[in-house]
Design goal:
By secondary structure, the chain is of the alpha+beta class.
Amino acid sequence: MEEKSTRQQKVAKELQRNFAEIIRSKGMAAFDGAMVTVSGVRISPDLSVAYIYVSIFPSEKSGKVMGILNENLKALRGELGNRVGKQLRIIPEISFFLDSSLDYVEHIEELLKK
């Protein structure tokens, strides 16, 4: 695993905070009633690509919600640009990834109940 620069970490943290606010401001109705949480952000060394990890509850809706996020990618990136445009010279391209660690936790809990 390569060493992350302090700048990368700061930018990733800032993007995560802002993106969480954007998603919260949309409300659950925008995501088919699912709860969407930004669980992490990784950013490329040149700060041009942000990999945004989201966890979705209930997980049955994850396919539909990922579709909604990807359909609105341009608008979401624009909103992100409005929020962080002063701090960043380039607004990174965005890729969404499903963080399935919640499913994993649920699975482990089910196994422990048996």
